[in-house]
Amino acid sequence: MSARDAIVGNSMQRTPIWGLLPMLVVQIALFVVPLAIMFAYSFWTSRNYRIVHEWTLVNYQTFFASWIYPSVLFRTLWTSAVITVVTILLAYPFAYWIVRYTSRWQKFVLGAVVLSFWTSGLLRAYAWMAILGHGGIINKGLMLLGAIDSPLSFLLFNPFAVVVVMTYFSLPFAVITLYASLEKMDWSLVDAASDLGAGPIRAFWLVTLPQTTPGVISATILTFVPLMGMFFVPLLFGNPSSAMIAPLVANLMQAFQLGLGAAISFVVALVIMAIIALAWRYIDLGGSRTA
Amino acid sequence: MTQLRSRRRFITEALAASAVAATGLTGRPHAANAAGTVNWLAWGGHVEPSGIKSFFDQSGIKVNHIPMAGNAETFAKLKLSGTSQYDLFEADGLWPLRYHQEGMIEPIDLDSLPNVKANMHEAFKKMPALQVAGGKMLMVPWGWNPTLLIYNKKRISTPPTSYEVLLDPKYKGHVGFTSQHEFMWPVAAMILGIENPFKMNKEQLNRAKDVLIRIKRNAPTVMKGWNEQLRLYVEETVWIGMSSQGRAFTIQSSGGPPMGTEVPKEGYYGWIDGDMLVKGAANRDAALKWINHIHSAEYVATNFKRLQRGCANRAGAELLKKQGAGDLVTANMMDKPEIAFNMRLIEAPQNPEDYAAAWNEVMAA
Questions:
Q1: With contact defined as beta carbons under 8 Å apart, do A216 and A203 qualify?
Q2: Among A37, A127, B47, B163, which residue's CB has the most CB atoms within a 10 Å radius?
Q3: Which residues touch B247 (CB under 8 Å, ≥6 apart)?
Q4: Residue B274's CB: how many other CB atoms inside 10 A?
C-alpha cells in the first residue's frame, strides 16, 4: 500500500465520524441536554414556589407510593396501545391500497393524507367537536331526520371519542410509514407465491407481511410514542374520570412542582425508551432475516 | 462573466433586501425605534389590535403582546425565567401580593396616569388589599367577575340556593366543572364551611378534594376556558355551574337557553384582574403610557363589548351605554362596582405543593 493510499484510507475512515458531528450536536442539544436537565430536576423538590436544590428520591417515592400516578400511567399505556392497534389496522390496508391500486392518483392521495398536517392540531380537534358534539353534525342530522329525540351521549366525553379522534391524529404517521415500506417491497415475490399456488391471503401472510414487518414496527412506534404524551385530545374528548398522564404532568409544572413533574416525565420517558429499544431490536433482527 | 456578475449582484441585492426587511426599516416609521417597545404579558381577552395600532400611531411605541396563561402558571414561569423580558404582566385577585412579596413588581401611583385618574371608579383606585404605603396600588384594576351559580332555566325550574346543588345526582352529566382550580377550591371549601379556601390544612384539603371529586363525577367533562363553557351551556350539555350574571347573559344572547343566576347562600368568590409594572422594567415610561392608553374610554368600550365582564372603568361603561349597549352594561354589573367589593378574592395558595397534589388526585379520580 502506497503512502497516498494510506492517507486516502485514513481519511475515508475518519469521514464518517466528522459526518456524524452535526447530528451529534443536534442530538446532544435537543435530546441529551433537556433530558439531563429533567433528570436533575427530578431529584429536587419545590417548596412555596422555590426550588430546593437538595438531592432526594422523594419525587420517585411519591410516584410509586401514590395510587394515582402508576394507575394513570397504566391507563395511558393501555389507551395508547388500543389506539395504536386500531390505527395500524386501518393504516395498513389504506397504505396497501395506495401502493397497489392508485397508480396515477398516488401523489394526490398521499398529498391528501399529509394535508391534515397543514392545520393546527387544536383546530382539528375542535373541528371534531363540531362533528361529535351534542350540537354537532351527527346529532343534529339524526335529530332532523327524526332518527333520535335527544343527542347521542356516547359520541363525546368518553373513551370512544378519545379513540376516534386520537386514531384520526395518528393515522397519517402510520400511513406514510407503511406506504414507504410497502412501496419498496419486491412485489415479484408475491407473483411468485401466486404462481406456486398460494392464494391472496396466504401470499399476504407469508410474503407481504413478513417483508413489511419493519415498517409495521416503525409505524407502531411513530403512533404509540406521541399518543403517550397526547395532551389536548383526552382533555377535550375524554370523560372526567379517564385522565391520561400528560395533563397531570402539566398540572404539576403549572403549579411549580417541577421535581415531581420531571420525575413522572422521566418514568414515562424510560417506559417509552424501553418500548423503542425492544422494537429496535426486533427491526434489526427482521432486517437481518430479510437480508 | 456577465452572467456571473449579474448572479452576484442578484445575491448581494437579495441579502441587502433581507437585511432591511429583518431590521424592520420598511413600512414602519423611524419613530418606532426611537420611542421603544412595551413587552406586555397579558391575557388575550385584554388585547385590542386596533388599540395597539392607535397607540403606535400616536406615540411610536410598539406593544409586543405575549399571551399569558393562568395565575399559578404565570407565577411559576416568572419565578423560573425572571421578569426582565417583560415590562408589564397581569394577575387576578390577591395574586399581586405574592408578586410584591417576591419583589417582582413596582407599585403604581394611579393618579399619575391621567386616563386612570379620570376614568376609573374611585373604589378600584383604592383597594385596601392591594394598596401599599403612600397609596400606591400593586395593580391597575381592569375587569372583574363574581363566581355565582348559573343555571339553565328550561331544565332546572327551582332556582338553586347553594353550591350543594352541584353534588345532586339528578344533574349527573350536566354539571359544569372547570379546570381552573382556583375557582373550584372555594366552592368545595364553602360547602364544607372552611373559612379560607387558600389556606386549608392537609385534612381540610383532603375533605375538599373529596367534594370536588363528587362534583366532577356529575360533570360531562372538565371545561377548559370560557369558549368551551359557552359552547357546552349553549348546546345544553351543561345545565348548571359557576359563573357570572354577565356570562349567563352571553350564553343566552349566543342562542343558548334562558339562564338564571343565583347568589349561593355560602357566599361567593370572584376575581378582579389588572396590570402590574415589573420592578426595574426596561421600558418603564413606555409601559406606563400604554397603561394610560388602555384606560381610555374608547379602548375599554371596545374591549368590554367584545369580552363581557364587570368593568373597573366608569367612563368605558358610560361610553358603552351611549353606544346603545346598555343591556350589556347592566347584565355585567358594570354600573354596580360595589358588587365587586362584596366578592372574596382568589389568591395564591399558602402551601402550593399540597394543593397541586390534591388537584391531581381530583383530576385522576
A1: no
A2: B163
A3: B145, B150, B226, B229, B230, B308, B309
A4: 24
Cα–Cα distance, B56 to B49 (Å, whole number): 11
CA atoms within 13 A on the CB side of B242: 32
Amino acid at B346: I
The angle that helices A68-101 and A106-115 make with each other, rounded to 10 degrees, is 160
Around Cβ B257, how many Cβ atoms within 10 Å?
Answer: 17
Q: Where are the beta strands (DSSP E) in chain B?
A: 37-42, 62-67, 88-92, 105-106, 140-146, 148-152, 177-178, 222-223, 240-243, 259-262, 269-278, 310-311, 344-345
Size of interface A-B (CB pairs under 8 A): 94
Lowest mean pLDDT among A2-16, A167-181, B255-269, B315-329: A2-16
The C-alpha of B95 sits at a distance from chain A's nearest C-alpha, in angstroms, of 13
Question: By CB neighbour count within 10 A (0-12 exposed, 13-18 middle, 19+ buried), where does B22 fall?
Answer: exposed
Interface of B with A in 182-241 (CB under 8 A): 216-217, 219-222, 224, 228, 231, 234-237
- Report chain A residues whose CB lies below 8 A from the CB of B179: 235
Cβ-count burial of B32 within 10 angstroms (0-12 exposed, 13-18 middle, 19+ buried)? middle
Question: How much is the ipTM here?
Answer: 0.78
Q: Quote the strand ranges of B105-211, DSSP E.
A: 105-106, 140-146, 148-152, 177-178
| pTM of the model as a whole | 0.81
Residue type, A104: R
Sign of CA dihedral B106, B108, B112, B114: positive
pLDDT band at A21 (very low <50, low <70, confident <90, very high): confident
What string of DSSP letters covers A156-208? SSSHHHHHHHHHHHHHHHHHHHHHHHHHTS-THHHHHHHHTT--HHHHIIIII
